[in-house]
Design a protein that fits this description.
The complex is a heterodimer of chains A (359) and B (230). With 359 residues, chain A is an alpha+beta fold. In chain A, 24% of the residues lie in helices and 34% in strands. Chain B has one domain: MetI-like (MetI-like fold), CATH 1.10.3720.10. The chains are: A alpha+beta (359), B mainly alpha (230). Chains A and B meet through strand 7 of A and helix 6 and helix 7 of B.
């Protein structure tokens, strides 16, 4: 594996203890703030000193605490894109990018600068200062600068968080294009679930300094290995669960029995369903043969421009507006179709949308 | 009306030469000390801090007296210099040493504050880009801390220009050699030559105002267009 990381670092109220490998594909590192994402990147870049660890990049040892090897950041050839880009404010764009080309002869430097500007679409900005650039332009320059050292791995710390929302999808596309051409390990740290999904090929979920999940992103989103990972990947509905037969479980917090499709290797402790997987059906369709359909009452709702989140109580009308069993997310068009129907509505928790979480 | 003796302008040049040399010296040593201190914590660093700041707290006469002990014929540094056939006391270099020592804490304090203010992410970015520590300092930390360092330089220069007590102790009053403007004023007053004292005061005020005005204009002009395209 091109990049192998094993690092331990203890702080008074936080400890990082991770071990994973990355190949020549973008790896998204998802986690809430304070999970240690940035510290992890800093350990790899050589800006933070792990208590114990072993980091190798393409057979080059960057850190081996056992053998007392610690290559300084300047010799690691690991490109880092800082959260707010950290462009030198006193240098022009060209000077910023050329900072990493210092050791080259003048002609070579000019040639390489032009190539970097070209590669990151930073043309026309060369003589400007960072504070005269938009967020997207700053990011392109920072990327060009990070590439100037011909890094063997690229680390991006919240690459999109400093950008306006409407710019993000465009910049995201540019980043993906860049990653595709780069073909070396790329680690992208983010706290945004959708960003992590779109930018990474693989996904690593970091929680309280530990690897909570690591693998193919689709698999992690479809079958989160734990309650924690389910939560961190955006699942909103959970219930404690008890197995009642080969393919049925009882949802203790929702007071209902559910059919599930997957066989149960271990007794599940919890079960969950994503808010947008909850379906609504006409009550007339709800025959006895249909399973996983339950009457529900609306507690309250919250709107975004195109979607609505419905907080629902199962089996009986709500007593207080703070109490609800599940939250469902539906497009407004769909909601228009059943919003005027009399309560109770009927929700369907499709068996293949339910996931079971071990203890 | 008594004939006014022709003016001896040497104190102006001595003052300016002394202040400029002392400020350059303080700038180099103060910056080095600030960089050294930035990376250290603990008792030793705190103790050294105390020593560095002493000249700011002690009366200049005490500083002058201590320097006299240090550079005198029997002082450790004085003896060493004598080996090379050099005496510092009552020579022009003594005015520089006195002014530099007295203005050092101002340089040190402002430079340190300015360096500490530099966002460490810029320094880290430079390191990941392969820069040596010297390059990180010279091309990133120093330019970013420059307004503060410049402020420290101005303060130091002002302090060096006004230095009197320590200079008198270490360099004495040798006209044409160690007599700076403040010393010339003191001895003019003592000799009851109020015209001369007043003339020197006036010259001192003019020099100081010109200096401050020039620096204000310069830093202001720099601050306005800082880091935008010209």
């Amino acid at each position: 594996m091109p990049l192998q990381i094993q690092a331990e670092k203890k702080r008074p109220n936080f400890s990082l203890d991770v071990s994973f490998t990355a190949d020549d594909e973008p790896l998204a590192i998802l986690g809430p703030s304070g999970a240690g994402k940035t510290m992890l990147l800093r350990c790899i870049a050589g800006l933070e000193r792990p208590d114990r660890g072993l980091i190798t990049l393409n057979d080059r040892v960057l850190l081996d605490t056992e053998r007392r090897i610690r290559i300084p950041a300047r010799d690691r050839r690991v490109g880092m894109l800082f959260q707010h880009y950290a462009l030198f404010p006193n240098c022009t764009v060209a000077e910023n990018i050329a900072f990493g080309l210092h050791h080259l002869p003048r002609e070579e430097r000019t040639r390489r600068l032009a190539a970097l500007v070209d590669r990151t679409h930073a043309g026309g900005l060369e003589h400007r200062y960072p504070r005269e650039l938009s967020g997207g332009e700053q990011q392109r320059v920072a990327l060009a600068r990070a590439f100037s050292i011909e890094p063997e791995a690229l680390l991006l710390d919240e690459p999109l968080s400093a950008l306006d929302t409407h710019l993000r999808s465009q910049i995201e596309a540019q980043l993906l294009e860049t990653f595709a051409a780069y073909r070396r390990p790329v680690l992208i740290v983010t706290h945004n679930i959708e960003e992590a999904y779109r930018l990474g090929r693989e996904l690593l979920v970091l929680s309280a300094g530990r690897v909570a999940a690591f693998g193919a992103k689709d698999e992690i989103f479809r079958r989160p290995p734990s309650l924690e990972v389910a939560r961190l990947t955006g699942c909103k509905n959970f219930s404690r669960a008890r197995r009642t037969s080969e393919n049925t479980v009882e949802a203790l917090d929702w007071g209902c029995r559910l059919r599930v499709t997957h066989s149960l290797p271990r007794p599940p402790a919890h079960l969950g369903i994503r808010a947008h997987h909850i379906d609504f059906v006409e009550s007339s369709n709800a025959g006895a043969s249909d399973e996983n359909i339950f009457p529900c009452w609306l507690v309250r709702s919250s709107e975004t421009p195109f979607r609505i989140t419905l907080y629902l109580n199962l089996h009986r009308p709500p007593v207080a507006s703070s109490e609800y069993h599940l939250q469902a997310e539906v497009f407004k068009e769909k909601w228009e179709r059943f919003r005027d129907r009399p309560l109770p509505w009927h929700m369907r928790l499709a068996p293949d949308s339910l996931f079971l979480l071990p203890e | 009306m008594a004939a006014i003796a022709p003016m001896d302008w040497s104190p102006v040049w001595i003052s300016l030469e002394t202040s400029v040399t002392a400020t350059l010296l303080t700038l180099a040593v103060g910056l080095a000390a600030a960089v050294w201190r930035e990376r250290r914590r603990g008792v030793v660093a705190a103790l050294v801090d105390g020593i560095f700041l002493l000249p700011l707290v002690l009366p200049p006469t005490v500083v002058g007296f201590l320097l006299l002990l240090l550079f005198g014929r029997n002082g450790p540094l004085g003896k060493l210099l004598l080996e090379f056939g050099a005496t510092v006391v009552f020579s022009w270099p003594a005015t520089v040493i006195a002014a530099a020592v007295v203005s050092f804490p101002l340089m040190y304090l402002t430079a340190r504050a300015a360096l500490e203010q530099v966002d460490s992410r810029f320094l880290e970015a430079a390191r990941t880009l392969g820069a040596s520590e010297w390059r990180v300092f010279r091309e990133v930390a120093l330019p970013l801390a420059w307004p503060g360092v410049l402020a420290g330089t101005i303060l130091s220069f002002a302090r060096a220009l006004g230095e009197f007590g320590a200079t008198l102790m270490l360099a004495g009053n040798i006209p044409g050699k160690t007599a700076t403007i403040p010393i010339a004023i003191y001895f003019a007053v003592e000799a009851d030559d109020l015209h001369r004292a007043f003339a020197w005061c006036f010259i001192d005020v003019v020099i100081s105002l010109a200096l401050l005005g020039g620096l204000y204009y310069w830093t202001h002009a720099q601050g306005r267009d800082r880091w935008v395209r010209r």
